[in-house]
Structure of Nucleoside phosphorylase domain-containing protein:
Amino acid sequence: QNAGVLINPNFPLLESGATMHLGVKAGDVANRILSVGDAGRAERIARLFDSPESTKIVKSERMFTTYTGTYKGVPISIIVTGMGIAMMDFVVRESTFYVQGNVAMIRLGTTGLLKPSWPAGTIVVAKQARFVQQNYDYCPSNSNDEPYRLTNPVDADASLKDLLYSKLSSKLSNEKVREGVNITTETFYAAQGRAGDLFEDYNERLIQFVEENESEASNFEMETFKLLQLADKSKGKIKAAACAIGLINRATGETLPYQSLHELEVVSSEAILSTLAEFSLDNPISN
Ligand code: R1P
């Protein structure tokens, strides 16, 4: 039974040595990693590699794809991450498992903007992230109870974040790039305050609750907190930062057409790939 899986309950590997979910082996992932949500975005960004025709692609049966090539001569991996903190957890742990030396990891996502004055298409760089989780034990009759919980903030790596911010600002007009506190949510509907009649989510006051507790709350998405939290607990191995393109403004309802999103993805990816390529990792060998 379990053919192909080695017995190692703490970190299961396939017989080939590949990790169980990403399917990556030693040498498959570079020290510099760009994590993106969807497959199309990764494919579009991988076309920016020095020689896209020689990109190494590892596709797993669990929906992860890892593209590895070089940008300005520096090895970089782009990983299709999917959605949510559970997927980001697989990506951070498995992509870095075989990597020797320090790792720089940046996420490029899409996001819902919370600040009414920020137009759709604004790119938000996370200086910190906090996580919103539903309180499943919430009891509406208990007036002291809150239906959602907000964690304390975790910081992005300051040098990686600053380099990312300056690269993005020099590629795009200045007012398009902002810094804020990312609010990562457990779910897309309930935990981002999308109220409806079909389920009792107790989320009518969710956005107000977040903004009362975090005055710099800038955007909702679903992965950044986990990336920054694991980097923070990686004993110094992983330096992480994140940015996201505003696809919708939750306060005004303004949305970004997909055509504009795809154009912004390419421009911002050039900034992100340059950031990854230039960031100093202090590794003994230059990689
Ligand atoms: C929800 O639609 C998804 O979009 C955002 C959220 O974080 C979530 O993953 O990011 P991506 O476009 O990177 O997936």
User: Anything to note?
Assistant: The chain has a mean pLDDT of 95. The CA atoms of residues 164 and 275 lie 6 Å apart.
